[in-house]
Structure formats: structure tokens, C-alpha cells
Design brief:
Blueprint: E1 2-6, E2 25-29, H1 32-38, E3 45-48, H2 55-63, E4 67-70, H3 79-89, E5 94-98, H4 105-113, E6 124-129, E7 132-137, E8 142-146, E9 152-168, E10 175-179, E11 189-190, E12 195-199, E13 202-210
Length: 216
Amino acid sequence: MRAIIFANGELNYHKDSLKIDPGDLLVAADGGARHCQALGLVPQVLIGDFDSLEPGELSAFETQGVEVIQHPARKDYTDLELALQFAVEKGYREILVLGALGNRWDQTFANLLISASKAFAEVNIRLVDGPHEILLMRSGQVVELDGEPGDTVSLIPLCGDVHGIVTSGLEYPLKRETLFFGETRGISNVLTGQTASVKLDEGMLLTVIIHQPKGE
């Protein structure tokens, strides 16, 4: 089971590239509902305080049978975090987030770091923004990366140094090495084939894949 969450940032994703399986749960976080509408999709759930939607828009989604979960404007969590909490409570452990980045740097940083919350420690959250694919790795994890030769892979330590990193399928391999927090050694590695793997012993690692445009 997978949940796909549409946030209210800028959506850089082409409809033809978005493969939705029958079992996927579509969740719109407030204004993310407009992204669904633009793609010709109807979310099963619409959640948020709805400060980004007009009453008429909200009513239109309700008419289509969308489950609407409204929270007060004065709340402790962003609409995206509320949507993530909802998906996790429903048992989803694979979550794709679209439209999470944009012009507001505060929300963009918060959305990039949201996977580091203890509440999502057992969840695989992947943010996609156009050619960028972003995921967080934790201690002991092994992640397989899919792409094409020449795709860029950057490994960015979070919350301190990351130890025991082992990679394969990258131009500049790491063999049980440490990437230090605040340093840039892990930036701009390159995929040598269609797959690569990253393993770490201890720490948190933000992994970013930048896929080359098709045909280049």
C-alpha cells in the first residue's frame, strides 16, 4: 500500500510520469487539492485548515465524495504533516509527497526535514520535485537507488556526522566512511549504471537523486 500526498507548494510533475496503482491512497493537503484537479485526479481525502481553498472549491470536492477533514487555523502542525499523520494512522508505510517545495524557504526546509521526525521513523517518505527525488536514510538502512547512468546523487548528513557509509554503483565510492555534518564531500556523485546502493551504520542521511531529462 502506498499513499500519495499532494502538498500546496509548486508541483513539478508531469501527469504521464505519475503512475497511480488502484490501491494507492490519494491525499490532498489543503491547496494541494488544486494540483489533483489540474491532473484530473480526485483525492480520497482532503485535509487541512483550508485557508488556501475557497468555500466553493471545498464544496465541489465534497460533492465528488471526497472525505474532508478540517482542522482549526490555530494548530501545531502544517497541513502536510497532518496529511502524513493521517496516512500513517491508516497503516501506510510507503508515502510519496508531491508539491512539497516552492518559494517559501521556511516551509521548504520544514518539508525537507519532516522525515526526520520520530513519528515517521518507520515510514519510507519520498519527496519528488520534477527530476529531484529526495529521501531520508537512518542508522542501519540500506537503500537501492534507481536511475540512469549520469544521474546525480548527493548524500547530505543531517543532525550530526554519518558513519559507516558504504556505496556501490557510484562514480566516487564510499567504503565504510564518514560524512561530516556541514561539509560538502557527499555532493554531486554520479550514478554509473541503472542502480546503486547506499548503506550506513549510524546517523541520518538526506539522499538526493537528480534524474537527467529523458532523451539527454
